[in-house]
Structure formats: structure tokens, C-alpha cells
Predict the 3D structure of the following.
Amino acid sequence: MKAANHKIAELLSVRSVDKIKSFAVLIDPDKVNFDTFPAFLKSAEQHGVDFFFVGGSLITDYSIRELVAAIHDHTNIPAILFPGSSLHIDSSADAILFLSLISGRNPDFLIGQQVVAAPLLRQSGIEILPTGYMLIESGRMTTVSYISNTTPIPRNKPGIAACTALAGEMLGLRNIFLDAGSGAEYPVPGPVIAAVRQTVTTPIIVGGGIDSYEKAFAALEAGADVVVVGNGIEQNPELLPEIAASVKTFNSQLLKA
Ligand SMILES: CC(C)=CCC/C(C)=C/CC/C(C)=C/CC/C(C)=C/COP(=O)(O)OP(=O)(O)O
Ligand SMILES: O=P(O)(O)OC[C@@H](O)CO
Ligand SMILES: [Mg+2]
């Protein structure tokens, strides 16, 4: 067993306290083209991507190990598992978002998958990032809502989101992830992010439907510490430098203030 390491947890927490924002790119293992992936990875590194999140609600092509190896071969960017289930674990990753789906009431995603994964994770020595995962309603049914069989929090109820995040923090979860769901029609609303920001002190990760400079900037302004972008970049790789610029501009404004 490897010694417990808290490198990424510490980075997330220090950056959150210092109000330095981060950019995470979601890599869907089913959608990676291994011929063009090295060039994509180099471009991600050049543009200052902070983290890769690797995962999906439903993975049909078990290429996580190969994918993480490519990330390690071509970049120094941490590969963090973003699992849809306990089947999506690979010990070669740098860390795992140890999610509990606290916006839902499905015991399998609140604690069931975690019980199955716990002994494997302990053996792997991978860094554990205990994370309260909250789905926010985003216009149409998302893969994650369907697969998890859970109802997202209504997008016009920031109070429910804040109380859910607070309960997660009180339970000891160290990060809160507000997700509109991959390919969401509408991203997580600013007032929902702001209400959670005012309520908890943990780092806040926000994703789902962020497909422009402005949407990323709005999420950061509302209080997100990390913005996650997947689908938008899959569809248009030019979005990667655009989001990177949004995060950089936000961070440089902060330095000048
Ligand atoms: C802790 C362990 C081992 C498992 C956690 C299991 C839990 C609680 C998962 C939460 C629910 C879930 C299914 C999360 C998956 C989130 C994810 C990686 C989404 C990425 O997007 P997709 O939902 O795959 O969308 P596409 O349809 O665009 O591919
Ligand atoms: O694919 P997108 O819509 O960018 O969403 C990213 C991630 O938050 C999904 O869980
Ligand atoms: Mg997917």
C-alpha cells in the first residue's frame, strides 16, 4: 500500500483560499482518438490546463489505463478519475473524485458504489478526494441523471443547493461539485454557485454545458474554483484556448486588484 498523499487536495484547497481559479478538461474514454490524443495533450499543457478529469456515466471502451498513461507520457497535468461507478477505477491515476451523489436519493450512488470501491482504492494508494456531487437541473435529461436514476436540484432553488452543500460539508466532504451534466443545455446558474459559495468553505468545482469564454468567466465570478469542460472541447478543440484564456484573465485581474 502506498502512503496516503494529499497533494491534489492541498492544491485545491490552497488555490481556493487564495482565490486562484483552475481549469479542468473532462476526457471521455469512449471518445478519445489515440492517434490525435498526444497533440491534444501537448496543446492542453501549453494552454495551462490544470487537471484532467477522466470518466463518464457509462463507459463502454475500457481504455482508462491507456489514457492515463498517455497523459503521463505527454504532460505533467494530473489525471483525476471522475468515476460513474466502482468499475471505473484504475490505480495508475493520480487521484479520484470520491463522489457521493448528495443531490439524489439513490443509496447506490450515495454509499453503495463507495463501499465496493473502498478496499480497491486503499490497495491502490491513489489519492482520495471526498466530494459532494450535486446535479443541478439544466433544461433536459442528462446522461448522468438518467444513469444515476436521480432528480437534479431545481435550477431556480439556490437555497436547496446551499443546504445540500452545507450538509455535505458537515458530513466531512472536502469538495463540492456542482454539475449541470455533460452536454447540458444550460450551465449551473450563477445564483446557485453564489449561494453555495456563501455557505461552504470547501473548493467548488463547476461543470456541465460550459461552452464559451463568457460562461466560464460567469461561473468563476459566481464563486467556482474549478471549471470543468468536456463536450464543448470534444466538438470544437478551439474552445480549449478560449476557456484557458477566460481562467487566465480572471486570475490576472485578481493579481492586479
Ligand atoms: C466513488 C466511486 C468509485 C464511484 C462514484 C459513483 C458515483 C457516486 C457517481 C455519481 C453519478 C455518476 C454516474 C457520475 C458520472 C459523472 C460523469 C463522469 C459524467 C461525464 O459525462 P457523461 O454523463 O458520461 O455524459 P456524456 O453522455 O456526454 O458522455
Ligand atoms: O461535457 P460538459 O458539458 O462540458 O460537462 C463537463 C462535466 O461537468 C460533466 O460532468
Ligand atoms: Mg460520457
